[in-house]
Design goal:
The complex is a heterodimer of chains A (374) and B (643).
Chain A lengths: L8 H15 L2 H21 L8 H20 L2 H25 L8 E3 L2 E3 L4 H15 L3 H4 L6 H15 L4 H18 L3 H21 L2 H11 L9 H14 L10 H4 L11 H34 L3 H25 L17 H19 L5
Antiparallel strand pairs in A: 1-2
Helix pairs in contact in A: 2-3, 2-13, 3-15, 4-5, 4-7, 5-7, 5-8, 5-14, 7-8, 8-14, 11-13, 13-14, 14-15
Chain B lengths: L1 H40 L1 H12 E6 L6 E2 L5 E15 L5 H11 L4 H13 L6 E9 L1 H9 L7 E10 L7 H4 L2 E3 L2 H5 L10 E3 L2 H5 L1 H5 L3 E7 L5 E8 L7 E2 L4 H13 L3 E4 L3 H8 L11 E4 L5 E2 L4 E7 L5 E7 L5 H4 L4 H9 L8 H4 L9 H11 L7 E4 L2 E4 L2 E4 L7 E4 H7 L2 H11 L1 H10 L21 H8 L5 H8 L9 H13 L24 H16 L18 E7 L6 H6 L14 E8 L6 E7 L5 H16 L3
Parallel strand pairs in B: 2-10
Antiparallel strand pairs in B: 1-8, 2-3, 3-4, 3-5, 6-7, 8-9, 11-12, 12-13, 14-15, 14-22, 16-19, 17-18, 20-21, 21-22
Helix pairs in contact in B: 10-24, 15-17, 15-18, 15-22, 16-22, 17-20
The chains are: A mainly alpha (374), B alpha+beta (643).
């Protein structure tokens, strides 16, 4: 708080922020920027070589999102530490709000001032933050106690279950997996891990009964997509055809027949990877996956550098979140996982997930900048 | 303490981190392997599937090959026709569109029925092009084209319609095409392509695959909703090959007219006496005609029915193959009316029958050369064999009559052929035996499907002991040998077999096979293996039929010394004449009902000095071979030899 008394307040303030910008991990920013551009290019192709309806808005959103990310990076971690609990509560409330007042048969959206967004996306960040704050204040001794983990598990399951019943299986599972990963990371006793694993397995029949018909269908179709080639299995079959027909070098940019002729469902959102695979081939897909891995590794590396538990968990959480998105999405479109609805971060058209990732990366950058050891 | 704690925590965190890192690595590895598997290992499978999604292949029928005669005159060709095609999709109301179209042009009922059937099948299907009609006149096209704005769903396509410019003159040989049937598809003859015509009869059927050519393919790019966004030719069609037929249309045309006329007169309907007859209800069918045939009593008669075949004795080419009555093959190419079809089928004179190759007739006296050859070859008779003809031969309980009531007196072999003495052949037939006769007949082409390029042909019958036993389970009667040796009784043959017989005898060296295709290279035939002197003698006998003083065809010489024709007449009884009838006096041929009159036959060859062509004329129920068949043969030879 010294600089406030400084007579060169303004100058110092400016210097402070500029120096922070210099300490930014520009490699991460570059990766983010690159991925956003790939997203714009893919969406341009998805619309048949047109800026509307997706590429243009994605470009704007990316630019705004990256600015927001940089802004967030400049704010100190303490600020987020304080904010985290309120964010989580707000997130839970908005989830409940969509649950009861959301529109459409699938209640996912909330609209504020003309903008629609899915609260199930930012809740992931709120979860990361609240878990980070919680474990930040827990001593090593308390970490050995099982009771310590009761609250975090509740923190994880509460939004997870609400989202699953929205119903949005994919996002719900992502939230729960994210929470579990963080708990595991911070050192939850392996006993509890095994116990809950057994619990989950035994709960499968109950959960199965709770699922909606279309969710059951998706899982059944995943097990045997050819059983319903024109119905639920259509998506995954067409998606596999698109990927498979791409070959090594792909059909060429803007030349993917599956997407151009509308055989690909949801080619601008969840199935955008299919389009890239078809047009850019195996090489393109691997390069894209490599960029994602590189980004995740960069983020994960920061989790070693930062010294507070809060920062460690936030950085790890965001890194793992991106991994989850990528793995679920690509696993889904190439038929390794059931079609559960997970966007490809930074590339799929959709503001909420884009902003969630960008804000998350903003948090990571903030942790990096404000780390004392640097 | 605190730092130690922190260190422990860090250690554990990095352990856990590594574990999670491993999981992540496995996940990314799995995904990469999956992509590798899909995109590189199974690439071809998915490429095929993708192509299947992207493209819709349409088969384009090639242009059918033409059929030409030996002087390149067109026998079957293609004419541009316009088809009306509807771009069908689920949203359009076909009933209203059809109604609107019908308010502008007329479409025949059959096409509409067919169209509606197709529409019914289309329920819940993707958009498609549906043929409405193939027979659109130029007028219809322009009428619809002007109102094009009102019919955005339709378009025109040019199709090929088969035409037969020669009409009914060669219809039996050329045949016709028609829309393929279900059985054609099941037999694997064709692939199911809408609007494809395939050969149904005659040469069109026999050479169908050669004439048809190779199908091309059009590739349409289709969206997932089935809309066609691009279309181009993917594989070109290869048009069918032209077929050069050995027929000579000039000769064919002449023979056709000549056979129809027979010994009748061709009279214009404008003549008074004819007009009078035409008012009679019975003569309804002549109303549309400009000329009619009249007999000697000046009464309107049907044209003669029968067959003429002319064959090259060297290479077997058929120069002319006429069968009357005939039909117009053009009525088939645009979808045949059921009514017209039934009319053709129920016609008592069966115009659809190709008499030249499927018509079966007892050959009568025309096989006497063969019988004589059988005897000569076996050494049972020689050139000097004599028999006395008293007009009949008593055998068992029956009398076997000669056509000459009072007999020919003492006749030699040559005289017997010249005058067609039946008793002489009864005598030698008995000596030779049915088995030797049938063996010779088979050698000369009877009782078998000759190797000609027509699918529908008859085999005929050459009787012998085994045949009789197999058919009836009874023993061969010697009396039947008598009948067989003058070509009556069980024996049946087609005009094609008769002309082949003559060709083989006159050729003398090879077993000539008939063919309808121009022979560009010398054909190789099997050896005939008959004594050359015997052949020479038989040829002399056949010459005598025309040249000889008592020859049955002496009145019908061509008139040139060195270019005479030779041959053999035949008059075939269709009914058995009972003893009672003979005693009460035979009804003259002309007084009998048409169906019971004799068939008139003539087989022959010309020119005598250097034989080139063989002929067979059959006039169904025409009377005697010498009075009607021989003059026809002479006139055909006159045209053929340019005299």
């Amino acid at each position: 708080m010294n600089y406030r008394k400084n007579k060169f307040l303004k100058e110092s303030f400016f210097n402070l922020y500029v120096s922070k910008l210099f300490r930014l991990n520009w490699l991460i920013v570059f990766c983010i920027f690159l991925l956003c551009l790939i997203g714009v290019a893919s969406l341009y192709s998805a619309a048949g070589g047109q800026w509307n309806p997706w590429a243009k808005s994605h470009l704007y959103r990316s630019l705004i999102g990256i600015s927001v990310m940089l802004f967030i990076a400049l704010l100190p971690p303490n600020f987020y530490n304080k904010l985290s609990f309120y964010c989580f509560i707000l997130g839970l409330l908005s989830l409940l709000f969509v649950k009861f007042f959301g529109h459409g048969s699938v209640q996912r959206w909330i609209s504020i001032g003309g903008f629609n967004f899915q609260p199930s996306e930012p809740i992931k960040l709120a979860l990361i933050l609240v878990l980070a704050k919680y474990f930040n204040n827990i001593s090593k001794v308390d970490l050995q106690k099982n009771s310590t983990f009761l609250l975090p598990i509740i923190f994880t399951l509460l939004p997870g279950i609400i989202v699953v019943t929205q119903p949005d299986l994919g996002t719900g599972v992502t939230i729960i997996l994210l929470g579990i990963a963080i708990l595991f990371y911070i050192g939850i006793p392996l006993k509890i891990v095994f116990l809950s694993f057994i619990l989950v397995i035994s709960c499968v029949p109950i959960i199965w009964n709770q699922l909606y018909e279309y969710q059951k269908n998706r899982i059944l179709v995943f097990l045997n997509p050819e059983s319903d080639s024109l119905g639920s299995g259509y998506q995954i079959i067409q998606s596999k055809i698109a990927i498979g027909s791409g070959g090594l070098f792909g059909k060429g940019y803007l030349l993917g027949s599956q997407s151009r002729l509308n055989y690909l469902p949801e080619k601008h959102t969840d199935f955008v990877f299919t389009l890239i695979s078809e047009e850019m081939g195996f090489l393109g897909s691997i390069v894209l996956i490599f960029i994602f891995c590189f980004l995740i590794t960069l983020i994960m590396r920061i989790s070693f550098i930062v010294d507070t538990v809060f920062a460690k968990i936030v950085v790890f959480g965001v890194g793992f979140l991106i991994f989850l998105y990528v793995a679920l999405n690509i696993g889904m479109v190439c038929g390794l996982l059931p079609v559960v609805g997970a966007p490809l971060p930074l590339i799929s058209h959709g503001g909420t997930s884009l902003f969630t990732i960008l804000i998350g990366v903003g948090l990571v950058l903030s942790m990096n900048i404000h780390n004392k050891r640097i | 303490m605190k730092s130690k704690n922190k260190k422990l925590l860090d250690q554990m965190i990095s352990r856990r981190f590594m574990f999670l890192f491993l999981i992540k690595g496995i996940a990314i590895g799995a995904i990469s392997w999956r992509l590798f598997d899909l995109q590189l290992i199974e690439n071809q499978k998915y490429e095929k599937l993708s192509d299947g999604n992207q493209f819709d292949y349409l088969i384009i029928p090639p242009e059918r090959g033409r059929i030409l005669d030996r002087k390149m005159r067109l026998l079957a060709g293609n004419m541009d026709g316009f088809s009306l095609v509807l771009k069908w999709n689920k949203k359009i109301n076909t009933d209203i569109i059809l109604k609107n179209i019908l308010s502008v042009i007329s479409i025949n009922e059959k096409d509409i029925r067919h169209f509606n059937l197709q529409i019914k099948k289309m329920e819940n299907n993707y958009p498609k092009e549906i043929l409405i009609t193939k027979n659109l006149s130029q007028k219809d096209v322009s009428r619809l084209a002007v109102r094009r704005i009102n019919f955005p769903e339709i378009f025109f396509s040019i199709s090929k319609n088969r035409i037969y410019p020669q009409g009914n003159i060669v219809s039996h040989i050329i045949g016709y095409t028609g829309i393929f049937s279900k059985t054609d598809v099941e037999n694997g003859n064709v692939i199911s392509v809408p609007g494809l015509d395939i050969g149904k009869r005659g040469l069109e059927k026999y050479f169908d695959s050669q004439l048809r050519g190779v199908f091309g393919r059009k590739r349409n790019e289709v969206t997932s909703k089935g809309y066609i966004i691009d279309s181009h030719i993917y594989e070109d069609t290869i048009p069918g090959k032209d077929l050069e037929v050995s027929l000579d249309m000039r000769l064919q045309d002449f023979a056709f007219q000549r056979l129809k006329q027979g010994n009748f007169n061709l009279v214009s309907v404008d003549e008074k006496s004819i007009k009078k007859q035409l008012t009679n209800k019975k003569n309804n069918k002549y109303l549309e005609k400009k000329y009619v045939y009249t007999n000697k009593q000046n009464k309107i008669v049907d044209p003669e029915s029968g067959s003429i075949i002319v064959m090259d004795i060297e290479n077997g080419e058929i120069l002319c193959s006429v069968s009357t009555p005939s039909f117009n093959p053009n009525i088939f190419s645009n979808g045949l009316d059921l009514e017209e079809w039934n009319k053709l089928r129920n016609n008592k004179k069966s115009p659809l029958l190709n008499r030249s190759m499927s018509g079966l007739y007892p050959p009568g006296s025309t096989i006497k050369m063969a019988v004589a050859l059988a005897g000569l070859e076996a050494g049972i008779i020689d050139y000097k064999t004599n028999h006395f003809c008293s007009g009949k031969k008593e055998f068992g309980n029956n009398d076997f009559h000669c056509w000459a009531k009072n007999g020919h007196g003492n006749v030699s072999l040559m005289q017997a052929i010249e005058q067609s003495c039946d008793v002489f052949f009864y005598e030698i037939g008995l000596k030779i035996g049915i088995d030797r006769i049938s063996e010779m007949l088979k050698k000369l082409g009877f009782g078998q499907y000759l190797n000609i390029e027509i699918n529908d042909k008859a085999k005929g019958v050459v009787p012998n002991l085994d045949w009789k036993f197999k058919r009836d389970g009874t023993k061969w009667q010697l009396g039947e040998t008598l009948n067989a040796s003058i070509g009556q009784g069980f024996i049946l043959s087609t005009p094609l077999q008769l002309v082949t017989m003559v060709s083989r005898i006159v050729n003398g060296k090879f077993l000539v096979e008939p063919s309808l295709i121009i022979q560009k290279t010398n054909r190789k035939f099997d050896k005939l293996n008959i004594n050359h002197n015997h052949i020479k003698f038989i040829k002399q006998c056949m010459e005598q039929v025309v040249v000889g003083e008592k020859g049955t065809a002496r009145n019908y010489k061509i008139g040139l010394k060195n270019n005479e024709m030779a041959g053999k007449t035949g008059t075939v009884q269709v009914i058995r004449i009972s003893e009672l009838e003979r005693e009460t006096g035979l009804l003259k041929n002309k007084e009998r009902p048409w169906k019971k009159r004799d068939h008139a036959l003539f087989v022959g060859y010309a020119p005598v000095k250097k034989p080139k062509y063989a002929i067979c004329v059959v006039v169904e129920h025409g009377g005697s071979g010498s009075s009607i068949a021989a003059p026809i043969a002479r006139d055909v030879f006159k045209i053929l030899l340019n005299i």
